[in-house]
Amino acid sequence: MSANGKPRRKFWGWGYEGRGPSEEQQRRIAELLAGRFGLAAVPEAIPAPRVEDLSLRAPRLDPPSSLAALCSTDAEDRAGHTYGKSFRDVVRALARDFANPPDVIARPRDENDVAALLDWCDAARAIAIPYGGGSSVVGGTEPPAGDRPVVTIDLERMGRVVEIDRTSRAARIEAGVYGPALEEQLRPHGLTLRHFPQSFEFSTLGGWIATRSGGHFATLYTHIDDFVESLRVVTPRGTVASRRLPGSGAGPSPDRMFIGSEGALGVVTEAWMRLQDRPRWRASASVSFADMLAGAEAVRAISQSGLAPTNCRLLDPGEAMTSGAGAGDAAILVIGFESADHRPDAWMVRALELCRDHGGTVADGAGATRDDESGGREGAVGAWRKAFLDGPYLRDTLAAIGMVSETFETAITWDRFPELHAGVTAATQDAVNRVCGAGQVNCRFTHVYPDGPAPYYSVIAPGKRGSQLQQWAEIKAAASEALIRLGGTITHHHAVGRDHRPWYDRQRPDPFARALAAAKRELDPNQILNPGVLLD
Predict the structure, then answer these.
(1) Hey, how many other C-beta atoms are within 10 angstroms of the C-beta on 176?
(2) So what's the pLDDT on residue 432?
(3) How distant, in Å, are the alpha carbons of 392, 493, 504 from that of 86?
(4) 3-state secondary structure 26-72
């Protein structure tokens, strides 16, 4: 526990200290994986690092007296802001490798503090890294290598819902608010943002906006973009404040310029966000299909029907087995509807009809509407939900016992999905077999659109202690090359960060890259804001 009585977050991995698989559960996981991959044994888990195990570089700059009260050079604070939460990050943290920590952690209280911190960094030519919850899995908040000192600007003190417009169903919200605290503040008003990424508990509104986060809705409102009404962004050249409007055709959108800018153009300090009434009715069901492609045809029909289900996650047989949603002999579609206004019975009935039309097997009584929180928390649907929420904790355990365990995701149009899926799966599995000797590549859809799905791939394979980073780098490169070659995006919702730069540079049009670089020079002439993400 921390000094204020709240659970203490791990400085080296996902979530809170003391949470995740127990020692007995870790032993069973190791036995399961040894049997699955034909291993004589799985190594003992590496103990979690302690702050006293670390030898951090001394800070390379000191804050001015006017900002000292906002700043920390505490060892655990600096270690906790060194990495994000990817497999690569956890492996380095378990190896006690904190060779390049930020020098200072600054926690502004308001927008004026943010501006003052950027002024200091600009004058000192120090790098400024905007920081939400630190849940990046693409190196988005990691200090770049080099001699320039680094100030990480953690917005956690800016966590209020400032104003609510019930008539327009919107709210003005500070960017540092974490997901649970945001929903707690909206709940008394009967409102919700209804944006629940897997990182929800440990990520912030500003982080969602800066990385174009994908959330709870599998269709319709898939990205945070859909909820942004206006923004305030502090840059080294001044504050950008967009006009609050339901829509506008007045030229390129200033909001769109900063949504997804990953802290390279400015620091998002607050936003007006479109909200929803809290749902009253929920219906969910699971449907089995012979294989992934058969299920994909049903999902395409649903996505083009106008039904707009809240949940429409298709799991291939391996993913279904791993999550406990199936036995591994069929693909499983997890589908759900919710509403604050009406019972979704008719929508669910039609969706299940479409599933049956495409060869799906639906259990008797599936899809019943409920008016309590239990909808979607039982059976295969509930198993998938639990695996989804527990996944990051499990990943830390897998890294500790020497496995290679990571994910990557993309999006593609329906006409090209079969070729992309076959090519990406083959390229990734080939790399896994070559690098690790054995392993498993699974797939699920996280989001679907009328014109295509967002496939999300999971890799688990036996690693070699001391070589896990190199093993994953080779697998990741093979998968990423296949994604780009076959016409997919390098990321649907994980952002670019530093890890995806080689492939993002090839995906984006060159004239757009030059225009983005020109915007960077204008807003950040001394290149202090998160250099290395999106562009150099």
Answers:
(1) 27
(2) 98
(3) 9, 14, 18
(4) HHHHHHHHHHHHCCCCCCCCCCCCCHHHCCCCCCCCCCCCCCHHHEE
The 3-class secondary structure across 109-135, one letter per residue, is CCHHHHHHHHHHHHHHCCEEEEECCCC
**Bridge-partner residues for 276, per DSSP?**
192
Computed from CA positions of residues 213, 210, 76, 160, in that sequence, does the dihedral angle turn out positive or negative?
negative
Residues near 415 by beta carbon (within 8 Å), at least 6 away in sequence:
none
Copy the structure tokens of residue 375. Answer: 């909808």
Q: Residues 110-121: pLDDT tens digits?
A: 999 999 999 999
Integer Cα distance of 142 and 148 in angstroms: 14
Buried b (16+ CB within 10 A) or exposed e, 294-328: bbbbbbbbbbeeebbbbbbbbbbbbbbbbbebbee
Contact present, 201 and 179 (Cβ < 8 Å): yes
pLDDT digits (tens, 9 = 90+) for 314-370: 999 999 998 888 999 999 999 999 999 999 999 999 999 999 999 999 988 899 999
**42-442-397 Cα angle (round to 5):** 35
- d(C-alpha 97, C-alpha 275), whole Å: 42
Ramachandran region of residue 514, left (φ > 0), alpha (ψ -120 to 50) or beta?
alpha
Q: Count other Cβ atoms within 10 Å, centred on residue 506.
A: 12
3-state secondary structure of 427: helix
